[in-house]
Amino acid sequence: MSEKKESVLAGFKAFLMRGNVVDLAVAVVIGAAFTNIVNSVVKGLISPIIGAVGTKSLDGYKSCLKSPCGVGPDGQPTGVEILWGSVLNATLTFVITAAVVYFLMVLPMAKYLARQEARRKAREGVQEVVEITELEVLKEIRDELVAQRAHGGGSGLSGSRDGF
Question: Of 65, 51, 58, whose CA–CA distance to 87 is shortest?
Fold first, then answer.
């Protein structure tokens, strides 16, 4: 039983230490902190600015679907309200979050990866040219040696005095 416990714990440790799990955990923590910042910007800056154009905070905009809307004498809400200001506020928060993530994280990373890919292709292209050039030179040397042997010698490469 002790052996099974150790293997389960070893497997759990291996799972936690995998790179993508750690990266995911960091992303969740950073995302939660970033969400708080965006919510503060929307509630502290954007909603009041929109409210200044209108008459109240963005969260205060609502419509009454079934009258009378409000709070009854017993403290219970009456009527049916549609809180479209809150929906607009959440939509703005989402759009701002998506824009910041795209323009500050996704777009620069995509450009960086494209540059890396272009560099990799350029290196591969240079290596291909070098390999082809070396291959062509070797073929020319081979063809020259075959031609010299066929014509009965010439430069003395096959029977030189140096022993090569």
Answer: 58
